[in-house]
Amino acid sequence: MKVLIIGLGGVTNGGKTTLAEKLKKMLPNCDIISQDDFFKPESEVETDERGFKLYDVLDALYMDEMVKSIHNWMKSPASSGVVTEEPQNAWDSLKNTEDVYILIVEGFLLYNYEPLNELWNRRYFLTLPYEECKRRRSTRVYQPADTPGYFDGHVWPMYLKYKNELEENGSNVVYLDGTKSQEELLSCVYSDIVQELKKLRE
Fold first, then answer.
1. What's the gap between Cα 90 and its chain centre?
2. What one-character DSSP code corresponds to residue 200?
3. Nearest 5°: phi and psi at 5?
4. From which residue to which does the signal peptide run (predicted)?
5. Per residue in 9-39, pLDDT tens?
6. How many CA atoms lie within 13 A of 103 on its CB side?
7. Phi and psi angles of residue 50, each rounded to the nearest 5 degrees, phi first
8. Active-site residue identified among 31, 36, 59, 146
């Protein structure tokens, strides 16, 4: 039995969750772990001198729990409740991949935490220009809600900080333009993962 661990990281509102869900429908034996499920409760998230809750940093997340969840999945992917029926429109190249299990890990801060970096088979990073990201973010409802100035004061600067760290230290990251259509992004990542599956089976 082989496992393929796919990272789907990047900017807030970049389309990570949507892309992960679509890939899950198309790939055999595929499961998703979402970083958003590991946020600490609001009372444990630090507040800075401006009154901003510092959600867009690693300290706002139970990262050790997240790593543990991924390791648990890797130990017994077949018992994780993963759907094993034939995916929609499966290519012939995907037939006979019963022995391969795929985990998509999606989140905004995946590649800046060392214990995760030894796990990835493939890493994708969705980007957006500032204006588009701000526009999309303004249409979403968060708990707790974004306070005035929060995007410019915390969210965007943290995205740039972690993206710069990644560009300095991260190799083998595929950058994706989040302004492209969902179909285009899906097609690009799907065909790339299919190539990885073929390699695994060789």
1. 23
2. H
3. -105, 115
4. none
5. 999 999 999 999 999 999 989 999 999 999 9
6. 23
7. -90, -5
8. 36
Give the pLDDT mean for 103-123. Answer: 94
| 123 Cβ contact partners less than 8 Å away, ≥ 6 residues apart | 6, 7, 9, 110, 111, 170, 172, 173, 174
| Tokens read off for 128 | 């957006």
Which residues lie closer than 8 Å to 172 by C-beta, 6 or more apart? 122, 123
Do residues 111 and 161 make contact, with C-beta atoms less than 8 angstroms apart? no
Is 64 a catalytic site residue?
A: no
In the chain the domains, ranked by start, together with CATH numbers, are 20-84+93-200 (3.40.50.300)
Among residues 44, 73, 66, 167, the alpha carbon closest in space to that of 113 is found at 66
pLDDT at 93: 52
**Local structure of residue 40 (DSSP, 8 states):** P
pLDDT at residue 98, rounded to an integer = 62
